[in-house]
Amino acid sequence: MQNILIKNIKGLAGILENNQAALRGANLNELQQIENAFLAIENGKIAYYGKMEEMAGINDWRNLEIIDAEGKFVIPAYCDSHSHIVFAKYRETEFVDRINGLTYEEIGEKGGGILNSANNLANLSEDELFESAMERLELVKSFGTGAIEIKSGYGLTVTSELKILRVIKRLKEASDLTIKATFLGAHAFPAEFKENNAGYIRQIIDEMLPVIEAENLADYIDVFCERNYFSPEQLDEILAAGVKHGLKPKIHVNQFSILGGVEIGVKHGAVSVDHLEEFDENDTVTMSKANTIATALPSCSFFLGIPYSPVKKMLKNNIAVALASDYNPGSTPSGNMQFVNSLACIQMKLTPEEALNSTTINGAYAMELGDEMGSITIGKKANLIITKKISSLAYIPYSFGENCVERIILSK
Ligand SMILES: [Zn+2]
User: Which domains does the chain have, with CATH numbers?
Assistant: First the structure.
């Protein structure tokens, strides 16, 4: 990668030195910034930065790109720690059906829902899935995402789940985004296992997990713990098996009901517990003592019209909070992390600083990438956004729907 010098930066924000873990509580509101700054990138890493008047003479002009960022901000690229971007088809017909008042059952009968996503996916080749996912990665990159976690879960058969994970493995190599892979075979029970849930769990544990470990196809294991999906007991069993195969948990819990999944996730050393639209006192106590990150998905609440996670309350209780997109065809057809920042401020009442930290450094920690990216730190990978000319950082969440990203610089 070419060395880069960015000069005349209006505001270099998200500076964080000597930090070891996700930001908690009041620290989430701290966003260090230098006005009228420069930043130098050498060999893909942040080499040094400071105020313009301190910019040292350049020794080597060869192989150096100089960017004038007058009027523009430089911030860390977004780290989106929860997505499902390998899927067969968008589901906007379902969206229209929902507007027209059809029930979930009626929509399912017409060809909607997770099970139908799985049927569509079974008919696509690995190459077709790879091509469409690459396009989605380019799309989220244009909105400033530099690292992303991608889940399986639209396969629900041994063949299809492994197909998705092999696609994600190819994406890791082909894309300039940094990618983490999560195995979500336990997303829903396939129709043929409706009366035999234990049979599908045996497939996950005995047939999928050994291949995933042998081919190094995933970093994490996920389960959708919810009424009519996977029970807390089934969550416990699947997580234990995943951990045995070297996968740490990152799980779907508390979207519609509180079943005790948060505690089970923490017990198994979950990197994050995600959704948390419902969150009670027990969960608060558990999470305030845990290293596990609470990941909220405001775009999903927006799209489904369900409650937003109570992140303000979580911060008061010193819980580490990250925000992610949940990009998927059913409940969140958008991976725009600037919009996530807008919803965080408008609906969850986070400050722009809290929103930015939740989607950069804490998102990075929610993928165990916090030591490598997510902040302006000497020695970290240069994963940065140069904004368009904007009046202040608060303009980004304020101007919802606008793309404030002019350029993204990424290194892996
Ligand atoms: Zn999800």
Answer: 3-77+374-409 (2.30.40.10), 79-365 (3.20.20.140)
